[in-house]
Amino acid sequence: MRLEVKNAHYSLLITQYPILESMKLTLKIWRQKSASAKGKIETYQVDGIEPDMSFLEMLDVLNEGFVEKNEEPVVFDHDCREGICGTCSLQINGEPHGPDSLITTCQLHMRKFNDGDTIVIEPFRATAFPVIKDLMVDRSSFDRIQQAGGYISVNTSGNTQDANNIPISKEDSDLSFNAATCIGCGACVAACKNASAMLFTAAKVSQFALLPQGKLEATRRVLAMVEQMDKEGFGNCTNTGACEIECPKGISLENIARMNREFMSASTEG
Ligand code: SF4
Ligand code: FES
Question: Distances in Å between the alpha carbon of 92 and those of 35, 80, 81?
């Protein structure tokens, strides 16, 4: 609502925003006691949720209620709560990181939901991401792909070349930077019908493939990372594009095309 206040000396335009009421929600949450236990969806009610709370703060409110009743809180992963660390991996109403785009679960606000809504919350589903407990999954398969080749070797013996002396085109540095913004959250895997890790692996290959510093180990890197990706049990890419849509960092499918080119030329060289 806009209100205009005028007199001879001034004119003031006041915009009034509606006061958002707190919400009551029904949560259907995957509960699983351990990696080997059989899990199931349990239903809970949560009250007093402010629209400006984050999704994780809403779960905190739920868990405070469990602690007060001496019951087991829901286990979920989180660390930075700023969209940086990539740990907050939740499937919300069937979508990795929920209904908003280009954000992680910790950046999702409850104003995206309505009072009385039912929200289904599950862990990311993939064979290569086994459930540890409740909503927490083991994503160490991503770490092993990184360890297989997601690094460069730099001479640190005292005569290291200043990075500013190595000319890199603006286009390549931007593309490399964009690929490097992948936070390893796993939403691309959770979104993919084949649970493929191609977008993640392609981002990690691309960030080096585009820079001169990454050229030395390029052949070995792409072969080793793709081999590890396959070993971990991720599915194949069938060019559906769901990964790109659900990626909170907007990692482009172009990275997959680049990795495929790198892989083809490395296989020929090998
Ligand atoms: S590519 Fe996107 S969705 Fe996949 S791990 Fe990286 S940031 Fe997450
Ligand atoms: S908690 Fe770090 S990205 Fe969400």
Answer: 21, 19, 17
